[in-house]
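seq/struct pair 1
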Amino acid sequence: MKTTRTSRLNVKIDKLTRSIELRISGERFDTIIEQIYPSDSKLLDDGAWQFDWTFELRQQQREVYKLTTRENPTIIQGLISIEDLGDHVFVHLIESSEFNKGQQKLFVGVPGNLFAFASKLAFENGYGGTVAFESKTALIPHYQETIGAQLLWGIRMLINTPEALILTRQYFNDFDSENFDGTQKNT
């Protein structure tokens, strides 16, 4: 059964990589992250996703991005739904494609790549890389350990500037943090 409302994040960061890696060989694949729109909903095979991404696409205040490899840009490796809240980026939802879940997943590094992208956008928008999200209670220690997220209150978590910088540089080698000091929104 698909979830139609966004909820607490329930995705594990399997590995922080430099891109995404083929699980069985460790071979790295360069990635592309592009925004998708409601008119792109045909790209989202209904059976391949746990969450209702067409719902996310219809939310005007949110942006949905797909992660693909340069070698095969037609196959979606993962999705992220974010919202610019004026002083930080809020992650509503992250999901790896069905074939990137579980013990036999094809690629590792997909969730980390998507979190790094959210941090990069937060730098580019002048928020010092600050990203917030709500976590499943059981995953709070996981996010603290893997991406350095801090617990704000309840289930709300925050990736602050130092951790966002590490995460962004991990996945985006050409990222120049000198241009994004977090004091003003870039236009």
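seq/struct pair 2
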Amino acid sequence: MTLGARAPIRVSNVSTQRKQNQMIYNVLTVCHGNLCRSPMAAALLQQRVEGLHVCSAGLAAEAGEPATTEAVAVLSEIGIDIRAHRSMRLTRQIASDAELILTMTAAQTRSLQSIYPLMRGRIFSIRCFDDVDIDDPMGLPVSAFRTCRDALIGGIDYWVMRLKKLGEPSVHRVCSQAVCIGGGGQ
């Protein structure tokens, strides 16, 4: 199976079931300039999870800039088109709207947790499971963008698995619904 041929998972079958079956709906990916890593991560995650709203922003982004030609090219190689991407600077409102914020490095995670201490529990490095930072390929050859893409795919695979587990009904949730539906709280 090629990198771009991964099957999307369904977090929810219909939008009206979102609140019941999907605990996380809005995901934000964050990097420095919002030109390479975070737009690639957002597109990769969006491709893999149906019904998920994914956007990206940069800590120091200049608004309205397109993704780099190298980022566009390496995602095009696996069938993903990010030509429509335009950069956006991270704001408190954008961060507040996200239920999960994925950064590219541990330093970015610490920085965001410091800036937004009340959001600490939803800010993680995309590769937190193995403590690998996603290095910024800006200004490097296209091979560095491929390395970046492949590292992002590893992180996306991890988060797709986590999101899928969050969307599965647990015994506790099923029992809680049965009590409510059956009038057990009367």
